[in-house]
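Bug #77: duplicate submission created two jobs. Keeping one. Sequence:
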Amino acid sequence: MSGLRWAAALLLTAAGFCAGDARRQRLATRRRALEETAGLLARLRQEIGYRRADLGPLYRTLAAEYGPASALGRAMGRADGFGQMAPPAPLAAEEAACFAECFAALGRADAGQECARLDYYLARFQSFLDRVREEEARSASIDRRLGLAAGAVLLFVCLIIVVAVSLTEERKGSVRDLIYASPAAWKYIIFGIMTLVVIVFGAYGIGYDQSQFIYNQF
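Kept job's structure:
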């Protein structure tokens, strides 16, 4: 076997290591979105409770402060007011539902009731934030070990495939020629499996998170 094939197989171990790291990055993005949301609720509580600020101008001011660099800023930039805001994409389903419930009814009560509502939702988002921080701390080492183990399994499978292909080429010639010379049904099966592998690992590989696509249409 060529050294290039061995090098390609060994790189899978590093890929497994990166798989755990990718999950930690998603947790960090989600934590920042929760921190931004909690900060926004605290700011609204202050503005409504002490200054009785009008929500329209306040929304435009806060949207400019957060800006498109943050997940919350992008969500605010796509809406015209608090009631039309879609939850930031990194939030989990429960957190996104709480976000939508909180901001959909904002501005429909007097200042005292609004402050009570904001205190309630601020406590909920603080609990979400504490939970994510604990999960992020646990994943700092666990995810990397799990990713390394996954890379070792992939390495073993890849080595088996490489050895099988090399032995076949030594005894029967080119594997490509053998595939083309096989019956049509086998060719379709082999090419179908190869296409499926490319689709699965290309579109739904490391970093894929289905929950991120729920609110992307907004």
